[in-house]
Amino acid sequence: MNGGECMAGQWPIEERALDDLDLDLRNVRIPGGDLDEAAIINYLVEAAGLLELARSILRDGYIDNELPVVVDEGGRCVVLEGNRRVAALKAIHRPSLLGMAAPKIERHISRHRDADTPTEIRVMIVPSREAAQPLLARLHTRNPKKEWIREQKAIFYHAQLAQGMTVDALRARYPDEQGSTITSYIRMGEIRDVVRGLRFDDPDLARWVMNGQLKITSLEYAYERPKIQEALGLAFDKDGLLASKQMSEGQTQALIYLLRRFRARTLDTRSHELIAKYDAHTNFAEELRLIVIGAKGGATPTSGPNAGSTAGGGGAPSGQPGAGGSPVSGTAPGASGHPVPGTSSGGAAASGDGRGAGSATTVGGATGSTGGTGGSGAAPGSQPGARGPNRGDTHTKLNMDGFVYKGSSAGLRRRFEELRSLSVKEFPNAAHDLLRTVLECSIKDYFAASAQATAAQTTPAQPSKKPRMLKDCIDELAAAYQNDARMRNLINMIKHGGSTTATKYVGTAVSLNASNHEPDIVFDAKDVHEAWDKIKPILVEIVGK
């Protein structure tokens, strides 16, 4: 190589027709197999925002301030640098190259019918691949031959299905990849399609998913686990294809909850929830299952490749973390993963007095609108009216749909009515305190109605004016439901709250007590919604039937 070959400024610049430019098939780090131009273009659609680039070219015109770099090989000009730009121009003039994605670019073309897109472009012609390497290395992290990571390979292989290629054909075309490896790539591509097709209420979460910050290779540690697959209702066939990419509302909420956990870094590849040998894994799978089955309208598809993307509102499931709820509180001590120790004692006053016949009280919910004021006028005994799906912590008031207090305590009924009317946005700490009160009092009410004594209950032989503490109540409830797997998991969510993550901390006995006993601990509206989502299904079971 001579000095002139190394100097990009001395290489000729000429115009070439798009039809005379070939994409660089050697630019793709896929082991073995025969590639074609359509395969590369479909990969660029999935992984490199080719459609967005084509749309910007149609809208703003083609700007050639950065020229594609080409080399003459066998009488053809092969594009060494600028494959994405050349591919976008080719796709604009020949949408069929995009396979199943062709209608998308055709829609862009129809909106910009007056766009003047070139059929010939200026290119810089290098004498050889070797001569171009210093330039390409400077442009691409000085390691242009670095092999693709798993996620890039998954995007590539999955993109080939858009051309109508079968998974068996992929295995035959790329024999250097084990068949099971290609299947795992297809599963990854399927999940990527699903999560990118979810309807997000949280624009920050949507951006995190759509701009590539979400690492599907990390999410793989969740969806590849059989218990989590089953809990989420994901069914893959032998080729790695999902039986359906249309997610029900419950599946949507469970996936969004999972994404929030990964984004907040309260869940990662080392978390016990994702390692099968730990009890936390079973509990986590059950938590996801409850979200899936707990959402209203669970049979209605609310997401998928054809169901929208970042707009719209997925419903928050009853008794589970809502789509809008952040897994990290900005003010609660759990945000740092270190709640205040020694706060498991204390308790709200028992609701033993004031008991009477009393009719069942319906605790109404907020309206379906964002930030609705909801149901403060609902009369005791009334059932919640028809409403749209909930949207997590965007509500001004707690979602109490489906909960009817059916106990006989007038005092506890009054507390539920106050909780229903309280704005958690204006008074989050008052609402959080009241959550603790209704939980403890409901457990006491349950055992009083069931005529079951507790170890901490006062007896004639050993009188005491000290009320039972929240911890005692929860322990007693756990013992009473030790043979009920669903309730056992729900109770465990609030029972355990030592040094843990922010999401797990909110709604635990430790956090509820911290709110009641620690002067410097404060909670926000998101914390209250998340705590209520954990407590509500327990209340439905013990005082709502």
TrEMBL record:
It comes from the Bacteria. Residues 310-327, 365-378 have a biased composition (Gly residues). Residues 299-399 are annotated as: Disordered. Residues 342-364, 379-388 have a biased composition (Low complexity). InterPro entries: ParB/Sulfiredoxin_sf. Transmembrane segments: none annotated. This is ParB/Sulfiredoxin domain-containing protein. It comes from Frankia nepalensis. The lineage of its organism: Bacteria, Bacillati, Actinomycetota, Actinomycetes, Frankiales.
